[in-house]
């Protein structure tokens, strides 16, 4: 079974979006280099960021996101982002009316059920959990194996917290650190 990784780009003060759900400068690092990260021609990063991020992206089988993110993105028009095979949406509501039942999206009630479904779908590939409230719930439930952060040199001041509403202590191992253009890539194993 693949590992469960909590991931997002984050400000140095710990936010994944501002109070209006806007990332602001958090994704600027994705256009700060000259090495294409995908086929769009828009996303270009440093060689260090490319090697780190591309290797990670290529291992992801399933992404878990909350219904709020799903709604903000209009469900990615029914196509999982970044070439991911499936998206598991944590929600207490059914799929939107008129949603294509063939789209590789799975609507699940509760983070534990979401991780179980994602691991079933991912096999030995990585299950990525979006940081924020859903990621924080997965961490609090002991379901996260690794925390990855792309820390950008920005202070948002307020907004949506990387760990959501986690209100208990969780210990991580020492970080693996790589520096790219306008980003510091951090990777922590969750201490068991």
TrEMBL record:
Pfam family, one: RibD_C
InterPro entries recorded: DHFR-like_dom_sf, RibDG_C
Segments forming domain Bacterial bifunctional deaminase-reductase C-terminal: 90-177
Highest rank taxon of the organism: Bacteria
Name under which the protein is recorded: Dihydrofolate reductase family protein
Organism: Kribbella lupini
Species classification: Bacteria, Bacillati, Actinomycetota, Actinomycetes, Propionibacteriales
């Amino acid at each position: 079974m693949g590992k469960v990784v909590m991931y997002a780009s984050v400000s140095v003060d710990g936010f994944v979006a501002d109070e209006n759900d806007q990332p602001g400068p958090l994704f600027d690092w994705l256009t700060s280099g000259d090495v294409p990260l995908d086929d769009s021609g828009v996303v270009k990063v440093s060689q260090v960021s490319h090697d780190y991020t591309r290797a990670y992206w290529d291992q992801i089988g399933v992404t878990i996101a909350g219904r709020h993110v799903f709604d903000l993105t209009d469900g990615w028009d029914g196509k999982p982002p970044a070439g991911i095979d499936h998206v598991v949406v944590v929600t207490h509501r059914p799929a939107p009316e008129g949603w294509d039942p063939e789209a590789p999206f799975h609507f699940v009630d509760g983070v534990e059920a979401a991780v179980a479904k994602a691991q079933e779908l991912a096999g030995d590939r990585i299950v990525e959990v979006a940081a924020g409230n859903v990621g924080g719930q997965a961490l609090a439930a002991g379901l996260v194996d690794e925390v990855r952060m792309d820390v950008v040199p920005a202070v948002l001041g307020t907004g949506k917290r990387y760990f959501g509403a986690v209100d208990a202590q969780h210990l991580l191992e020492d970080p693996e650190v790589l520096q790219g253009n306008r980003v510091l890539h951090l990777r922590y194993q969750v201490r068991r």
